Amino acid sequence: MHEQSVRLTVNGTPTAASVEPRMTLADFLRDKCGLTGTHLGCEHGACGACTVLVDGDAVRSCLLFAVQVDDMEVTTVEGIASPDGELSAVQSALRECHGLQCGFCTPGFVMSITALLRDHPDPTDEEIREGLSGNFCRCTGYQGIVAAARRASEIMR
Ligand code: FES
Ligand code: FES
């Protein structure tokens, strides 16, 4: 298939590649950039495991083609901690509140909570549950994740 060039910024690093138009952003990040923290669960937009930030908004990378994010800025879970490895408030809060078990869903939750708190710095429980309603977790029962979102908003204020 005819390949197309795509240029984007991934976690602050300008990145260019030649890709098939049918390559999803999720596959691009995992296979072309080696950023395997973005997980694939359902691959059809239901589970949220593949959530990344595109120009700051939380999006499902399995539903976008890489060529659609040409000239845009993508942040994956690998770009959330500080360069020196210090965890973000959201990551620390997930650890503190036991918001993960197997961790498969966690990168998606980190991205969704990060975007949620940018838009709602002091969210109600309802806003947290609504903001995370597109992310599935098969292990935790969600209580720890909701507590972590609340705790992260406290840390950030
Ligand atoms: S893998 Fe993208 S939403 Fe499930
Ligand atoms: S921690 Fe296992 S799926 Fe969420």
Please explain how this structure is put together.
This protein is α+β, with helices and mostly antiparallel strands and 157 residues long. The chain has two domains: 76 residues, Ubiquitin-like (UB roll), CATH 3.10.20.30; 68 residues, DNA polymerase, domain 1 (Orthogonal Bundle), CATH 1.10.150. 32% of the residues lie in helices and 16% in strands. It is built from five helices and five strands. It has a five-stranded mixed β-sheet, with helices on both faces. Strand 1 and strand 2 form a beta hairpin. The longest helix is centred in the last third of the chain and has 14 residues. The protein is globular and about 50 Å long. The chain binds FE2/S2 (inorganic) cluster (2 copies). The site of one FE2/S2 (inorganic) cluster has 12 residues, from loops.
Summarize the structure.
This protein has 157 residues and is of the alpha+beta class.
